[in-house]
Write a structure and sequence with these properties.
About 35% of the residues lie in helices and about 15% in strands. The protein is an alpha/beta fold. The strands form two sheets. It has a five-stranded mixed β-sheet, sandwiched between helices. A hairpin with a 4-residue loop joins strand 1 (about 45) and strand 2 (about 50-55). The structure holds zinc ion.
């Protein structure tokens, strides 16, 4: 049976545990099965147990395809996980835990945990900086999500900054590389110059062209060896190439998903919803890159390993991670 191309085919295909295992192993270990503990390729497949055994004599020498991935320690089998991954990465405006629960026959609570684990896999772990060889340009912007300042214009938000603590709002910072059409976004603790600059320094190659609006938090970028151009929302919305409409378009997609499908997102979970939207945006079909649902699914399965969502992270007991 060939790889599934549609949701219907995926459900049929992944109902067979052997298909699940074969597909998962091929995407997780594209160069052959590797022991997650010691990295050796010298492993034996134990067919009846659907496990591998490492030839080295260390603890945990037997491992399943789920070990070391976001699916580890889950009692659910891949026949639930893989259709769930398919649904999440191909739902244009996100998918609720209720819908996952109905589609897969699990409880809503289980579906909620599944969704957060899948979002963890969607997180971009690229160590490469944006801008890169062609030096950008990269659009940079921030937006406020949730709470009483939802959709509020920045000038008004700034006036309210003294009252910041009383308003439940979360700030998301985003960057769009105009050449690669790839977005990165993350929750940031505040809009201070230092916060914005550090995020830019960590994500954008020095010497790149950076477009922002006229906010004073960005006014020192030229001194950091960026070619900085600003667009004023009031006077000149678009000055030729200098605009931030790409990242603003991403904000509207994010907000549409958050207000439509995910009505009540707790601020400390927001990062994972942002990761989800970023994954979908960066893997969307374009004229130059006509990705299909099956391509998006394969791309996500290739990044499920070496990521874990701990209970502490899920319950907000650890600090946020700006970029
Ligand atoms: Zn080993």
């Amino acid at each position: 049976m060939k790889d599934p191309k549609t949701l219907q085919e995926a459900i049929v295909y992944f109902a067979d545990p052997d298909n699940c295992l074969e597909y998962m192993a091929a995407h997780r270990w594209p160069n052959g099965v590797v022991c997650p503990t010691c990295g050796r390729k010298d492993v034996t497949f134990l067919k009846t147990q659907r496990k591998w055994q490492c030839k080295s004599a260390h603890a945990k020498r037997q491992f399943t395809a789920k070990v070391g991935t976001v699916f580890e320690d889950s009692p659910l089998g891949l026949e639930k996980w893989l259709p769930a991954v398919w649904l999440v990465c191909n739902a244009k405006n996100g998918i609720s835990s209720y819908e996952i629960a109905r589609s897969l026959g699990v409880t809503q609570k289980t579906a909620w945990f599944m969704l957060h684990r899948i979002r963890t896999a969607m997180r971009n772990g690229s160590l490469l900086k944006m801008g890169g060889n062609d030096r950008g340009p990269v659009e940079v912007d921030e937006t406020f999500v949730g709470g009483k300042t939802k959709n509020m214009h920045r000038e008004r938000r700034l006036r309210m900054q003294t009252a910041e603590k009383t308003y439940q709002k979360t700030i998301v910072m985003g960057m769009l590389d105009r050449e690669s059409r790839q977005v990165r976004a993350s929750v940031i603790p505040n809009v201070k110059r230092e916060t914005l600059q550090n995020a830019i320094l960590s994500q954008i190659e020095g010497g790149s062209t950076v477009y922002t609006d006229g906010y004073q938090g960005y006014d020192n970028l030229a001194a950091q060896e960026y070619i900085h151009a600003t667009v004023s929302h009031v006077d000149e919305y678009v000055r030729g190439q200098v605009h931030t409409q790409g990242i603003e378009n991403f904000w509207s997609l994010l907000k549409r998903t958050l207000s439509g499908t995910y009505v009540a997102v707790e601020p400390f979970h927001l990062d994972r919803y942002v990761d989800e939207q970023v994954f979908r945006y960066n893997n969307r079909a374009t004229k130059d890159n006509p990705l299909t649902d099956a391509d998006r699914f394969a791309a996500l399965l290739m990044q499920v390993a070496d990521k874990r969502l701990t209970y502490a992270e899920l319950t907000g007991k650890t600090d946020a991670r700006p970029f």
